[in-house]
Amino acid sequence: MPDSTLPNKRRRSAKPRIERAALKLFVHDGFDAATTREIANEAGVSEGALYRHYKGKDELALSLFMTIHNRLGVMLRDALASEGTIEQRIYRAVEAYCQLADEDWLLFSFHLVSLNRYLPNDTRRDDDPVSILEKIVAAMMEAGDVPKSDPAVVVSMCLGVVMQTGLSKIYNRISGPMSDHVDILSKGVLAVLMQK
């Protein structure tokens, strides 16, 4: 007698393969160049299997992007809201960012190269990473922990320190894990915050 759970197991195992195949194609070929047929072929599933999990390429890409984007917001908030000196909190935030990058470089790469596609739809949400950082930096300024300035500009500059390093890694200008660079990245972010 056939195992009645087999189709469900196949469906569940197809989704991670579809997501990995999509990430690979999105990062290496570009979102616009990748088709649902190519994603399915790369995943070793039928195109119909992809549509059982996602309405199409757009929904798949947005889901992948938001998964890491939302996680990043929580990690940064937790690192910066914890006890310690400004230096310790910045170090923990940069360390969390780098560890997330190293945990799944392909997904992280997709996040970095897709920011301009998805962030315009995600601005000024209370729980988006940039809004979280702006609130924390504004509170640091209000408390006198860092010099007063425009929190949005300062956060943009701080993010530039780590994000540009990530982009350089995508373009093979930097080798090794991002975590190898936590010390220097933390010092760069701190220099921006302290406006030195």
Write the layout of secondary structure elements.
Blueprint: H1 6-29, H2 36-43, H3 47-53, H4 57-81, H5 86-103, H6 105-118, H7 129-142, H8 151-170, H9 182-194
Descriptive overview:
This protein is mainly α and 196 residues long. It folds into 2 domains: 54 residues, Homeodomain-like (Arc Repressor Mutant, subunit A, Orthogonal Bundle), CATH 1.10.10.60; 130 residues, Tetracycline Repressor, domain 2 (Orthogonal Bundle). Helix content is 73%, strand content 0%. The protein contains 9 helices and no strands. Helix 1 packs across helix 4, helix 1 crosses helix 6 and helix 2 packs across helix 3. The longest helix has 25 residues. It is elongated and about 60 Å long. The N terminus is likely disordered.
Biggest beta sheet attributes: none
- CATH architecture type of the largest domain: Orthogonal Bundle
Termini separation:
72 Å
* Total number of domains: 2
Tell me the radius of gyration: 19 Å
Q: Quick one: how many beta strands?
A: 0
CATH topology of the largest domain, by name, is: Tetracycline Repressor, domain 2
Q: Helicity range of the residues?
A: over 70%
Low-confidence stretches: 1-6
Number of DSSP helical runs: 9
Mean pLDDT rating: 90
